[in-house]
Amino acid sequence: MRTKVLLRSAGLRLCPLLLTLGSAAQSAAATLEVTVVDQEGRPIDDVAVYATPASGGAAYVGGGEKAIMDQHDMQFVPHLLVVQAGAEVTFPNGDNVSHHVYSFSETKQFELKLYKGDVYPPVTFDRPGVVVLGCNIHDGMLGYIVVVDTPHFAKTDERGVAQLDGVSSGDYVLAAWTPRARPAALPPTQQITVGEGTVGAEIRITGRLSPAHEHKVSSLTWDRY
C-alpha cells in the first residue's frame, strides 16, 4: 500500500512539470501571418499561401488527411482548395443535376463520370502541383486544387491575410498561388525566418489580375494552366 501511495505522489509532482514542458513546446511554434496585395496595395482574397522549409530534403507526405470539394449551384465549392500531398479529396454533388468531374492536369488526371450525390470513393492527391477541375456537362464550372508538400498552408481571407499556425522556428520558402495570375506573373518565392510569436510577411502580386471567378461568366479558362 505504501508503494502505491509513493507512486501516486510522484505522479502528482510530475504533472506540473509535464504541463510546463508541454506549454514550452507549444510556445516554440509560431504563427506566420501573410498579407497578399496587388500592385496598388489592395488585398487579394482566396490566394493559396504555403511555407516550405528552406533546408529542402524529403517532401512531407500527408497522413491520410481528408478534404471535400463540393458542387453547389453548378460550381465547385470551394473554388480553390489547398491540401497537403497525400490527402484524400471527395467530390460530392449537392446539385439536383448530374455532373461529370474531370482533370487533365499533369499533377493529377482523373474522371468521375456522370453522377449525383456522393457515389465515388475519395481521390488521392499525392503529387505537389496545381490541379484544374472541370465538368464535362457545364463549361462554366472551374475549380482548382493546389497540392503542397508542406503542412503549413492557408488561404487569404477578405482582408488578404492568410494565417499559418503551428510553424516551427527556422527558415522557410514562402510561396503564393492564384488562378487570377498567369503562371509567369505569379510572385517569386521569398525566404523568411520564423522565430516565436507572430511573424508577419507580405506578398505583392504585380501585373494585371483577371477578375474573380463568377459562375457562367468566367474570365478563367482551361488554357491558362
Would you kindly provide a written description of the structure presented here, covering whatever features stand out?
The chain has two domains: 28-59 and 156-219, Immunoglobulins (Immunoglobulin-like); 61-149, Cupredoxins -  blue copper proteins (Immunoglobulin-like). The protein is mostly beta strands and 225 residues long. The chain has a five-stranded mixed sheet with strand order 6-12-11-8-9, with no helix packed on it. It is built from one helix and 17 strands.
Write the layout of secondary structure elements.
Layout: H1 2-28, E1 30-38, E2 48-53, E3 66-68, E4 70-72, E5 75-77, E6 80-84, E7 87-90, E8 99-103, E9 110-115, E10 123-125, E11 129-135, E12 142-148, E13 153-155, E14 161-167, E15 170-177, E16 190-194, E17 198-205
Parallel strand pairs: 1-17, 3-7, 6-12
Antiparallel strand pairs: 1-14, 2-13, 2-15, 4-5, 7-10, 8-9, 8-11, 11-12, 15-16
Number of helical segments? 1
Give the uncertain stretches in residue-range form. 1-15, 17-27
Radius of gyration: 22 Å
Strand content: 35-45%
Number of domains: 2
Secondary structure: helix percent: 10-25%
CATH architectural category of the largest domain: Sandwich
Please count the beta strands (DSSP E, at least 2 residues each): 17
H-E string? HEEEEEEEEEEEEEEEEE
Mean pLDDT: 85
CATH superfamily heading of the largest domain: Immunoglobulins
